[in-house]
Fold this protein.
Amino acid sequence: MADFLQDDKGNDSSMRLMCMISLFGSLVFGLLTILLEAKSENVSGIYITMGFLVSAFAPKSLQKYIEEKIK
């Protein structure tokens, strides 16, 4: 797991760590939304889950795109 959080040169990558935390956060909020709000019409849990999912994948892909443009 520690190798996954490092880039190609062996440097620690805080971006990857933040993305993993966001991914696990979206899983937790998704499960809580399904289990606790199954009977109500409140959709705020869905928005929170989607926000965490977007924050898990968008920054890394944006970083990769920007780094390719700079080089």
In short: The chain has one domain: 14-70.
